[in-house]
Write a structure and sequence with these properties.
This protein has 206 residues and is an all-alpha fold. It has one domain. It is 82% helix and 0% strand.
Length: 206
């Protein structure tokens, strides 16, 4: 993978990982309520799910890329529409608080399993990857080259997610009251909306 393209993908992955969504919001709530250890257990479960999802997405996208460019473009449009939907929902609910009382004190293994299940049972994750990964594939790549490129992207995305979610858990453990405030929720959700719109436009234009 071209170094400059990989760096762009890494920066986009980090921005995406930090954008509030169901997974990292749950991590923040768990860590803010029950401490950093609980939040990190959830992070490990979520990242295990990300590993499974990225492998599945990479394998499936390689086949689509080879067999049907029209279908591939259709999937990108569907992914972009989903990103716009996420942006609208984040903006509409910008003032919703990050719930501190929702997280429960559970053993580490159960928290890991909860994070894993949360990720694997969300079919929109694959659709999201369909919108995100192809933006960074070089034009004219063969099916084999696309598979290798997406494998590199998958590993990069996993590491970026692990780093970002872990930092969020650590920050939430120290600044839980601030994050859970209405003002904190407002900035988190509106920032998320802007990022989702930018990714959706990029998915359609590149």
């Amino acid at each position: 993978m071209d170094p400059s393209l990989w760096l762009s993908f890494l920066m986009a992955s980090l921005a995406l990982a930090f954008a509030p969504g169901p997974d990292n919001i749950f991590t923040i709530a768990q860590s803010a309520t029950c401490g950093v250890r609980s939040g990190l257990c959830v992070v490990l479960g979520l990242c295990t799910g990300v590993l499974v999802q990225t492998v599945a997405a990479a394998l499936g996208l390689a086949s689509v890329f080879s067999a049907s460019p029209a279908l591939f473009w259709g999937l990108r449009i569907a992914g972009a529409l989903y990103l716009f939907y996420l942006a609208v929902m984040a903006w509409r609910h910008a003032r919703d608080p990050v719930g501190r009382g929702e997280a429960q004190r559970l053993p580490g293994l159960l928290l890991w399993r909860r994070g894993l299940i949360m990720n694997l049972t969300n079919p929109k994750v694959v659709l999201f990857f369909v919108a995100f990964f192809p933006q960074f594939l070089p034009k004219g790549a063969t099916a084999e080259e696309a598979a290798v490129q997406m494998a590199v992207q998958g590993a990069t995305f996993l590491l970026a997610t692990l780093a970002a979610f872990s930092l969020l858990a650590l920050a939430a453990g120290s600044l839980g009251a601030l994050i859970a405030s209405p003002r904190g929720a407002l900035w988190l959700n509106r920032g998320s909306a802007v990022i989702f719109v930018a990714l959706a436009v990029s998915a359609l234009c590149l």
